[in-house]
Design a protein that fits this description.
The chain is α+β, with helices and mostly antiparallel strands and about 425 residues long. The protein contains 14 helices and twelve strands. The strands form two sheets. A nine-stranded mixed sheet has the order 1-2-10-7-12-6-5-3-4. A three-stranded antiparallel sheet has the order 9-8-11, with no helix packed on it. About 30% of the residues are buried. This is 2-oxoglutarate and iron-dependent oxygenase JMJD4.
Length: about 425
């Protein structure tokens, strides 16, 4: 991030206040970015990341990726022989798309070689199988394979570069920076499955995406407040089940071709349908531009839990603590863990400022953490952390063992923010 882009981003958030970005009607279409040499990081930040709008990057952006050469046959189909040879014994998560449980699909785990045997049978049968439609989903390839092999023959980065190279546009990636720092499961996934299964890059095959801007998904909810399993279902036209459905606000449709990269902005509800046999790489990510959205989401999740168990508030000891436990089981994170997430990122940004451009956490480390980016991030961290420490439910969290204490970390960020004005 350069000085001008940082200034633009800071002005954007000053004007926007604490509101959630990206609401309202869908844009007319999704921008298609053709040439890498003509599209800068600043272009992405100002044109798409700040306004929270989707875009599609052409296959030219991923032409050098190893997975596009090795995982795909000359005919553009999955190279099962290579995948079996490279990853056949790796255990992967597989969802059954034919069964719906609590608005999702049940999962099982199996060796990749067993899943590929199923997939080949599915193709040979013309798109059917007695086992139903199975979809390889949420495979942590980078942490599960790369890191384990690094113990024997090289670094995780070397194995990762065999698969793909992180695009510069997504280099400010707090979720994976956090998981890598702690050595826990990352947020980089591989998805693969046959035709008909339900930031994403298609390695091969085609996908159809249906995208809804933040807030527009509310019109899809049924009379119990539940989002539909399938947004194309005819049941949406039943006004008794879906009293708020607005047919005049259709989804934004995108067909993603092989090699193309789709940026799905924060808070955009979406549904995906495989049009061909498809393999894709997907990243979930958070950074300073959508951190406030994440905090807003967590507050909503806690409120939903509190409503569900509200009848036991007066009779259950430590009711507020139990709400945090339930929230974590449903959302994967609670207020305590969100603070630790902020703390890890904040301490790394403070270290960048202390070391300067040539520090070990600077641009040479490949994290995209120049001084201007670190300064911008500190501003966003300070604003969100100030809201966190003032939240009544966070004040009920036992922070006695936290180091630093939340108010102390906030003071460090605010002091650093003053110092960044001269950068």
């Amino acid at each position: 991030m350069d000085r001008e882009t940082r200034a633009t981003a800071e002005q954007h958030f000053q004007a926007a206040g604490a509101g959630i970005r990206g609401g309202g009607l869908a844009p007319v279409g999704v921008a298609f970015i053709r040439e890498p040499c003509a599209f800068s990081y600043a272009d992405f930040v100002t044109g798409f990341l700040l306004p929270n709008l989707p875009c599609v990057f052409s296959s030219a952006f991923t032409a050098s990726w190893g997975c596009r050469r090795r995982w795909v046959t000359p005919a553009g189909k999955p190279d099962f022989e290579y995948l079996l040879r490279k990853y056949g014994d790796v255990v992967v998560p597989v969802a059954n798309c034919g069964i719906q449980e609590y608005n999702s699909n049940p999962k099982e785990h199996m060796p990749l070689q067993d899943y590929i045997a199923y997939w080949q049978e599915y193709i040979q049968r013309g798109g059917s199988s007695p086992r139903g439609c199975l979809y390889l989903k949420d495979w942590h390839l980078c942490s599960g394979v790369c890191c384990s092999r690094a113990l024997h023959r090289g670094s995780p980065a070397e194995d990762l570069e065999d698969v793909f190279t992180l695009p510069a546009y997504f280099s400010s990636d707090w979720l994976n920076e956090f998981s890598d720092a702690l050595g826990v499961d990352d947020y980089r996934f591989v998805y693969a499955g046959p035709r008909g299964t339900c930031w994403s890059v298609n390695i091969c095959g085609r996908k159809k995406w249906l995208l809804f801007p933040p807030g527009q998904e509310e019109a899809l909810r049924d009379n119990h407040g539940t989002l539909p399993y399938d947004v194309t279902s005819s049941t949406l036209m039943d006004t008794h089940l879906h009293p708020t459905h607005l047919p005049s606000s259709p989804a934004l449709e995108v067909v993603q071709e092989a090699g193309e990269m789709l940026f799905v902005p924060s808070g955009w509800h979406h549904q995906v349908h495989n049009l061909d046999d498809t393999i894709s790489i997907n990243h979930n990510w958070v950074n300073g531009c959508n951190l406030a959205n994440m905090w807003h989401f967590l507050q909503q999740e806690l409120q939903a839990v509190q409503r569900e168990v509200g009848q036991w508030k007066d009779s259950m000891p430590d009711w507020h603590h139990h709400c945090q436990v339930i929230m974590r089981s449903c959302s994967g994170i609670n207020f305590e863990e969100f603070y630790h997430f902020l703390k890890v990122i904040a301490e790394r940004r403070l270290l960048v400022l202390g070391q300067g451009e040539q520090g070990e956490l600077g641009p040479s480390a490949g994290l995209g953490l120049g001084l201007q980016q670190a300064a911008f991030d500190i501003g966003r961290l300070a604003e969100v952390l100030a809201s966190v420490v003032e939240h009544p439910d966070f004040q009920r969290v036992d922070t006695s063992m936290f180091s630093p204490q939340p108010w102390e970390l906030l003071r460090q960020l605010e002091d650093a923010l003053v110092a960044t004005r001269a950068l």
